[in-house]
């Protein structure tokens, strides 16, 4: 992936994102072009405005763009992309590789989408976050798990994971969780990330469908192993695709 990861200071609060270009994006039905900073500008500027440490992993920004836009809060890290995985899945393997190589892991962390998520309020100073070290915080959507898109999205995982169909039936009416925002206290988050990457390495490497599998794997793991430790929706995220531009009472705005 890379041998040039930045070293974190002790007890940092961290927000990570990943921007992979030159690969067909099945969600946008297009191939993202290299060196287009506008796709990540709002995310980057929202992190810097809150004076939080953000790291953007990428494979498409040139050195000049990185020099222009890096600052005291934002670091660009160039990675090599492994086409065995689609970009939505590969980002989690990048995050895990980075975190497992740190001498001083962060105290708290969020990983987010980069082109449609912006920070609104610092989550790490919110009393709810501070008093919930055993909670996995994540985004959600105003729909239930049992919806037509998720049925199609999960076809590959359903065919490989023995209890996947049972999980879908048991949690059919539960709120659909969204992996565009995931975070928490570092020990819990790392445990979740390790298990998520294990699912992707075993089952999503062979995914030949038109769907990425990231939402399916995320919801499956969250609901089957961490269901009693979840907080999603308010105050973590605004309404997904609600375009609530004036809303200021959540931690992240997601479209």
Spans of at least 5 consecutive residues with low confidence: none
- End-to-end distance: 29 Å
CATH topology: Spore Coat Polysaccharide Biosynthesis Protein SpsA, Chain A
CATH-defined superfamily: Spore Coat Polysaccharide Biosynthesis Protein SpsA, Chain A
Helicity range of the residues? 25-40%
Judging from the principal axes of the Cα atoms, what is the shape? globular
The quaternary state of the protein chains shown equals single chain
Secondary structure tally, helices: 9
CATH class bucket: Alpha Beta
Number of domains: 1
The helix-strand sequence is: EEEHEHEHEEHEHHHEHHEE
Tell me the strand percentage band. Answer: 15-25%
Radius of gyration: 17 Å
Overall description:
- The chain has 255 residues and is α/β, with parallel strands linked by helices.
- The protein has a single domain (13-254), classed as Spore Coat Polysaccharide Biosynthesis Protein SpsA, Chain A (Alpha-Beta Complex).
- The chain is 34% helix and 22% strand.
- The chain is built from 9 helices and 11 strands.
- A 7-stranded mixed sheet has the order 5-4-1-6-9-8-10, with helices on both faces.
- A hairpin with a 4-residue loop joins strand 2 and strand 3 (30-31).
- Helix 3 crosses helix 8 (186-204) and helix 8 packs across helix 9.
- The two termini are 29 Å apart.
- The model has no long low-confidence stretch (mean pLDDT 96).
């Amino acid at each position: 992936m890379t041998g040039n990861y930045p070293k974190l200071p002790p007890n940092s609060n961290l927000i990570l994102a990943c921007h992979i270009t030159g690969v067909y994006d099945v969600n946008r039905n297009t191939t993202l072009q290299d060196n287009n900073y506008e796709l990540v500008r709002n995310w980057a500027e929202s992190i810097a405005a809150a004076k939080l440490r953000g790291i953007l992993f990428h494979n498409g920004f040139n050195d000049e763009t990185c020099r222009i836009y890096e600052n005291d809060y934002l670091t660009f890290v160039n990675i090599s992309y492994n086409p065995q995985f689609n970009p939505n899945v590969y980002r989690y393997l990048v995050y895990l590789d980075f975190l497992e190589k740190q001498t001083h892991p962060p105290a708290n962390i969020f990983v987010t989408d980069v082109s449609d998520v912006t920070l609104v309020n610092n989550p790490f100073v919110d009393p709810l976050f501070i008093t919930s070290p055993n909670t996995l915080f994540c985004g959600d959507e105003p729909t239930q798990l049992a919806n037509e898109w998720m049925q199609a999205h999960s076809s590959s995982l359903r065919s490989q994971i023995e209890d996947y169909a049972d999980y879908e039936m048991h949690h059919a009416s539960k709120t659909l969780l969204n992996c565009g925002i995931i975070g928490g206290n570092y020990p819990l988050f790392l445990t979740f990330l390790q298990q998520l990457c294990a699912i992707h390495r075993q089952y999503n490497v062979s995914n030949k469908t038109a769907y990425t599998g990231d939402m399916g794997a995320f919801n499956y793991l969250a609901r089957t192993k961490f269901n009693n430790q979840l907080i999603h929706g308010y105050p973590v995220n605004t309404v997904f695709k609600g375009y609530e531009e004036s809303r200021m009472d959540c931690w992240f705005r997601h479209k």
